[in-house]
Design a protein that fits this description.
Structural class: mainly alpha
Order of helices and strands: HHH
Number of helices: 3
Distance between the termini: 14 Å
């Protein structure tokens, strides 16, 4: 059994830098500087995604 957390692309600050956003806009990008708002909440409040793996 294992668990993991997933941040979708539209909330993932690393994806912002790799999608071609110009540096001038990156300086003003709230997500880049602050991260996803959910990370400021208690872990029990973080978004949950459930996945069922049926095999490798």
């Amino acid at each position: 059994k294992f668990s993991f957390r997933y941040i979708p692309s539209n909330h993932n600050l690393v994806d912002i830098a790799t999608k071609g956003l110009p540096p001038a806009k990156l300086r003003q990008h709230k997500l880049w500087w602050n991260g996803p708002s959910s990370l400021k909440e208690h872990e029990s409040e973080w978004p949950k995604w459930e996945y069922q793996f049926t095999g490798i």
